[in-house]
Design brief:
The protein is of the alpha/beta class. It has 2 helices and 8 strands. The strands form 2 sheets. The chain has a 4-stranded mixed sheet, with helices on one face. The protein has a 4-stranded mixed sheet with strand order 5-8-7-6, with helices on one face. The radius of gyration is 16 Å and the shape is globular. The N and C termini lie far apart (42 Å).
Length: 152
């Protein structure tokens, strides 16, 4: 039986509340658990509506080891689609900057326009929009097009 979709990601975080504030309040992702108005204690789950949760943040405390810098094995980043246009990506960029989050890069990947930000624990998150009119399904080579500077 083949894999049919990526179900969800689970991140260990120092503070579930701090992560919830970033993913919910800055990025605008719907927090599913705990319920709205309930204090975040221990874990928080988020969904864009596709499934019960696409992200789960589990609190492990401030004494947990940080992500090592530089080249290493493991997760590099994960991507979150944040709209349908560069205008929406610009709006998200401005919101991330206003919240004091660190933008660590940006790229025009031909099929997507992407900003790379760090969450409060240093996990890299790609915020992207698909480029209208680019049909990667009919030309899969477009997916590995040379990366160009992003002009927003």
């Amino acid at each position: 039986m083949p894999v049919s979709e990526l179900g969800h990601l689970v991140l260990y975080v120092q503070s579930a509340e701090r992560s919830a504030e970033f993913y919910r309040d800055v990025l605008g992702w719907e927090q599913i658990v705990p319920a709205k108005g309930t204090p975040v204690v221990g874990a928080a789950a988020f969904s864009g509506g596709r499934t019960h949760h696409e992200l789960l943040a589990i609190q492990v405390g401030r004494s947990a080891a940080r992500i090592p810098e530089g080249r290493r094995l493991g997760l590099y980043h994960f991507g979150l689609k944040v709209g349908e246009s560069d205008d929406e990506l610009r709006e998200m960029r401005d919101k991330v900057i206003a919240a004091g989050a660190k933008i660590v890069g940006s790229s025009d990947h031909t099929v997507t326009h992407s900003l790379y930000v760090e969450d409060p624990d240093g996990n890299e998150v790609e915020l992207y929009v698909d480029v209208p009119g680019v049909n990667w399904r009919s030309d899969k080579d477009l997916i590995m097009s040379p990366i160009r500077p992003l002009v927003l």
